[in-house]
Amino acid sequence: MSDLGSEEIEEEAENDLGEYEGGRNEAGERHGHGKARLPNGDTYEGEYANGKRNGKGLYRFKNGARYIGEYLENKKHGNGTFIYPDGSKYEGDWVEDQRHGNGVYSYINGDTYTGEWFNNYRHGQGTYLYALTGSKYVGTWANGQQEGAAELVHLNHRFQGKFVNKNPLGIGKYIFDIGCEQHGEYCQEEKTEEEEEEEVLIPVAPKWKATKITNLTLWVPEEPPPPEVTPAAAEGPSTEEPGVPAGLYFVL
Fold first, then answer.
1. Residue spans per domain, the chain
2. Are 152 and 159 contacting, i.e. CB atoms less than 8 angstroms apart?
3. What distance in Å separates the CA atoms of residue 149 and residue 139, rounded to the nearest whole number?
4. pLDDT 10s digits, 229-252
5. CA torsion 87→88→90→94, rounded to 10°?
6. Most buried residue, 7, 51, 78, 160, by CB count within 10 Å?
7. Residues annotated as region Disordered (predicted)?
């Protein structure tokens, strides 16, 4: 069962019609405030309009997940909080059962993401805070990945540059609290392994190559074009996976 879709299946089932207690309209449809037990064991308490969940309500899934927020025609729509079976939580905007707009996702390892969402994915501008190290990524996201101009902030220094598929790539700089900068470039390297008679290229993490050290300068990131959403992104994940601990790629 997807914990994001309207798995609140229709109440009409072959052997179990579920239970309902609450208001109805003249046509006999659920209308106003009501409580329902669905055939699949889920429960809902909240507002109805013309037979559909409409307005604020609390939906409890039999797997332990729950949603507290707004509905529109049976779909999570508006502002709401979804608590997942593993304990992670999303608080923010929803559009037709999708995390969409602005929201905060709290991961079970203590990490948090605060920012924009599109069709269930972190997409647009957002900040990811790594609980273990205290580091944070502030910048652009595309289809759930760190992608575009960003700043990675550590305890006593930070990196400003461009990210591609979660990795820093291209020209950037490290800024140190002592008042200087190290300019350079992250270069993509590949190592070759022989497999029988064919050579196989295996991508490795980009390597930092420093070019100069200067006093502090102003960093103005280029405005990237709007990120494209791939068709697969429309489906979206069920729960979000925590990010890679910040700092793994940054060796000076």
1. 17-85
2. yes
3. 6
4. 555 444 444 677 777 545 544 444
5. -80
6. 160
7. 1-49, 220-245
Shortest CA distance to 100 belongs to which of 122, 119, 75? Answer: 119
Cβ proximity of 206 and 192 under 8 Å = no
DSSP code string of 179-231:
TEEEEEEEE--EEEEEETTEEEEEE---EEEEEEEEE--------PPPPPPPG
Q: Residues in the chain, how many?
A: 252
More confident residue, 228 or 230: 228
Hey, which CATH number is domain 17-85, 3.40.50.300, 2.20.110.10, 3.40.50.720, 3.40.50.1000? 2.20.110.10
Cα–Cα dist 68/90, whole Å: 11
pLDDT in tens, 35-62: 999 999 999 999 999 999 999 999 999 9
